Amino acid sequence: MSTKTKSSSKPTGARKSTPKQPLTLAERLKRLFTSLCAQIDGGHFANAIKTCDKILRLEPADADANQTKLFLLLQTEQYDAALSLIDGSGEHAFERAYSLYRLQHEEQAKSMLEQVKEQKGDTDRAAVHLEAQMNYRDGSYEQAVELYNQLLETAEPVRTFLKSQSIHSSTNENHQQSEEYSDILTNLQAAQKHLDFITTGFLHALDALPTSLTSTMESAPPPTHVQSQSSQPSAAASGAAVAVAKISTAPAPEKKVRKSRVPKGVVPGVTPPPDPERWLKKSERSTFGQGRRRKGQGGSGATQGSASVEVPVPAAPASGGASKGKGKKKK
Fold first, then answer.
1. At 246, which helix (H) or strand (E)?
2. What phi and psi values does residue 61 have, to the nearest 5 degrees?
3. Cα–Cα nearest to 94, from 65, 133, 56, 59
4. 101 with 134: CB under 8 angstroms?
5. Gap between the Cα atoms of 10 and 90, Å rounded
6. What H or E segment, with its residue span, contains residue 102?
7. Beta-sheet pairing, 171-176 with 159-164
8. In the beta sheet, which residues pair with residue 172?
9. What are the residues whose beta carbons fall under 8 Å from the beta carbon of 270, sequence distance 6 or more?
10. What is the distance between the alpha carbons of residues 153 and 148, in angstroms, rounded to a whole number?
11. pLDDT tens sequence across 258-317
């Protein structure tokens, strides 16, 4: 007997794949923080907030993740979410005051700003910036100008960059303002324009008016209301009634036929409508069998369009010959 030396089964010494070990908490946090830094550098703030949420689910008490998420919420103008993230311990008092200011809660923002000044002093640059913005919004342009001038004096000096033109020539200096300096200068100019108009600008505007108007402006009585308070509701009601009447009497707009539902070559109102029995069999239609001629009927079998014409019969000839008309031949 012959025996098989080779076996079709798999070798018993094959190595089995070992299961992948899960990452530790420290390694997962390290990867998440690496992704967070890359997202912030690339300006992907929405994805960075999601990464912060993942970190906080693993480590809820992580101070860096909470601070970064608060910064991202302020950058993306999500002030309600920023207020809910800030706790009431007073650790983020400036962020709370800024969020309240952007949400136009002026009184609460001012009281919170006072707490920031007590904690960090009156010379804190962030607090001075916020106070100047509040004064500008309230119309206190003189105080806003003073604060912006104070910030401008202590701002970062103008940056200087050295730019070499060639190897043998001397270097050329390129001056560029810092971002804070340009922002303060823009806000200062806006506040100064409002202040100039309040102090002297309106006088120049009055001088530009014609003399016929300016001479009678001071002596003219103040304008009076034409309608009394009792007649104002009736006028408003009449105006509303007129508006309703206009709306009710306005002709309804004609409904246009949608072009997409009209088949090609069909003109609405001109092309006759289709046969309503076109979906039935021909034998089931009401017009089946009408005008149809059966075999063996129809008389002389005239062609289409033929008409019967009466022809006068002539008198029989004297010779008695056969007539030339149609008919059977006599045998």
1. helix 231-249
2. -95, 15
3. 133
4. yes
5. 70
6. helix 93-102
7. antiparallel
8. 163
9. none
10. 9
11. 556 777 888 877 888 888 888 888 888 888 877 666 555 554 444 444 444 454 545 544
Indicate the pTM of the whole model. Answer: 0.54
| Cβ atoms 152, 128 nearer than 8 A | no
Residue 331 has which token pair? 């045998």
Of the candidates 75, 74, 52, the residue with the CA atom closest to the CA atom of residue 63? 52
| Cα–Cα dist 85/67, whole Å | 10
Classify residue 287 by burial, with Cβ atoms within 10 Å: 0-12, 13-18, 19+.
exposed
- Helix pair angle (141-153, 125-138), 10° resolution: 150
Nearest to 98 by CA among 127, 120, 72, 119: 127
CA distance 270 to 276: 17
Contact indicator for 184, 133 with CB cutoff of 8 Å: no
283 vs 267: CA distance, rounded Å = 31
Element (H, E) at 127: helix 125-138
